[in-house]
Structures are given as C-alpha cells and as structure tokens.
Specification:
Length: 336
C-alpha cells in the first residue's frame, strides 16, 4: 500500500509508524501544559485536536468532545462521526491542505510529550483466541495430551478481567504476590511470583454499547469496534497454576494489563483485512463471519535485560488468531 503524502514531512518517511494513512488517537501532555488532552500522531508530531476544536477547525458535535482527556465521548458519537473525524483529519494534514497555516501551530513534538491512557476503561474481557497460545499454555498446566480444552474449537473462551488494572504502557508496577503451590511444597506459601510472564495481544476498543438483553451479530459487533491497541497481558504463571481451577484466572492476571498509548482506528486497518484460519470444527451459525474479520499485522516482541542488548524473542501475525474480535464480541453478548 502506498503512503499518502502529508505536509508534515516526518510523516512521509517509509520508516515512520505514523504516516497520514494511520492517524492513531491518543492523550498527551507537555511540560508547558500538563493538562492531559486529546491528540493525533502524525510523523514525529502530535496534533493537538483539543486546540483545533476550541478554534473551530474541528467540530463533531454541538458540545466539545475533544477536551476530555479521553476519547470516550467521541466513541459515543458512533461510526458515522468516527468516519467524519478521520476524513477531516486527513484533509487537514494532507499535502496541499489550505488550512495548513491554521493547523501547524497545533503540532507538538512527540519527543517532548508525555502519553497517557487514551480512554477510560469501563470493562475488560480477555479472550483466549490464539490456537498456538492456547495449546502452549495448556501444555504448561495440563501436558500436551490435554492442552486444548474440548470446547476451544467451538467457542471463544474468555474471562472478565480487572478494568482498574488496565494502564498505559510504561507504567511502573510491582511484582505480584500470591499463593504459590509447587511440587516442592506440602502446602501453599505466600510469596512474590517467580514466573511473571507477558503475553503479546491486540485489544479491541469497543466504542458502542449493545442493548441490554439483545445479542448482536458478528457484523454488528464489528461495526461497534472503534479501534485497536497493542496489549500486554502480564501473567503470574505460578499463581495461575494454583488458583485457576475451577473458575479460571484471577489474581494471576490482576496486577497489570498494559496497552499502547495510541488507538489505531479500525478504518485505518481496512486495507489489511484477511479471513480467519480454516475451521477445524464447524462453528455454530451465530459465529459465522460475513467477510474477512482479521488483519494482516506483523507483531513481534523484543526483550532487553538490564545491561544487555535487545533481542527479538518472538514474531507472529494477527491473522493467526482463531477467533476475530467481532466473533468474540458477538459471543460476549449472547447471554444478554
């Protein structure tokens, strides 16, 4: 896919994460103005959209919605307004834009900004949707012969997480304590986790609610998704091994869930849509997809221990997920 040209020169580099095609949404502050406010990443800069709204260059509603320090109010406006926002931002930042002179003063160097949580988390549900991950984690706890639960190929499995523990990437937190019961102990002990792990995930940001008591289809669920973030599901494996039966993870997953500070709007990912993998077992009709619901996104994890060089330890692609976020969300609403 070719890059769209912007008058912000750093957005035209082939190496940038934030070309005009992307325009992810975040919340930032600066030493000069410590007030968290909404912004859009473009090249090496952040566009202060709260300022543009105040100056009348960007308006989505009768009341201001970009001065809240979170994108929830914009999400509440619905998909038509999401599309209007993206179209307007693209027009303001495109090469040759007539409003450049008015917009340029609202640019802030990203290097001098502090990034905050981009939205207020009302609810967080973590799904177990990658086949390889499900098999590998299952092997850790049950052995390879019982690694994949018998329901896994039929149903998106998830649990309700702790919304208050979802924080922006870079937030400091302490190693979790919990009950540990290894084979070397006759009884559980209380101690810091010795097997604190990470999980590379994508998080779907749901911008529209479902009606109470009314399930949604996969297509309707897809329309409710505002955008995506990269997510790290920090997991205390030794705490998890002792506590997870019969109701699943609890304290092992409660320490922190870190997310990227930028929300990539779903519209920016449209050119990368791909289908879910072939089904090993037929799904029930309510989980059938009307079209491609995954995305071709390369993902990797690099680890840099103190005093050592960084090394890439895993590479994957989001297209490997067995269940799409839209399928997960549709299943989530099934019981009302």
């Amino acid at each position: 896919m070719s890059l769209m040209r912007s008058w912000v020169e750093s957005a035209n580099s082939a190496e940038t994460d934030f070309p005009l095609n992307n325009l992810p949404l975040g919340v930032f502050s600066t030493p000069e103005d410590p007030r968290p406010r909404q912004g859009v990443a473009i090249g090496e800069m952040i566009l202060d959209v709260a300022r543009l709204e105040e100056e009348g260059l960007l308006r989505l509603a009768d009341e201001p919605v970009m001065d809240r320090g979170a994108w929830n109010a914009v999400m509440a406006l619905g998909p038509a307004k999401w599309a209007e926002l993206r179209e307007r931002l693209t027009g303001l930042l495109a090469e040759g834009a007539r409003e450049r002179g008015q917009v340029e003063p609202a640019l802030v160097p990203m290097a001098s900004a502090r990034l905050h949580m981009p939205f207020t988390v009302a609810e967080f549900t973590d799904f177990y949707a990658g086949r390889h991950h499900a098999f590998n984690v299952g092997t850790m706890f049950r052995g390879p012969e019982n690694a994949l639960p018998p329901n896994w190929l039929h149903i998106p499995i998830g649990y309700n997480g702790r919304a208050s523990s979802v924080v922006v990437s870079g937030t400091d937190f302490r190693r979790p304590w919990g009950q540990l019961k290894g084979p070397e102990f006759e009884a559980p002990i209380l101690a810091p986790s010795r097997r604190f792990d990470f999980e590379l995930e994508m998080g779907a940001v749901v911008g529209q609610p479902s009606r109470f008591g009314h399930p949604v289809s996969v297509a309707e669920a897809d329309a409710m998704i505002f955008g995506y973030v990269i997510l790290n599901d920090w997991s205390a494996r030794d705490i998890q091994a002792w506590e997870y039966q019969p109701l699943g993870p609890f304290q092992a997953k409660a320490t922190a869930t870190t997310i990227s500070p930028w929300i990539v709007m779903k519209a920016a990912l449209e050119p990368f849509r791909v289908s879910t993998p072939p089904r090993e077992k037929p799904l029930l009709p309510y989980l059938e997809e009307p079209g491609p619901m995954l995305y071709d996104i390369d993902l990797e994890v690099a680890l840099r221990p103190d005093g050592a060089e960084e090394s890439v330890i895993t590479r994957t692609n989001y297209r490997e997920m067995y269940y799409s976020s839209a399928q997960q969300l549709a299943h989530h609403t099934l019981s009302g």
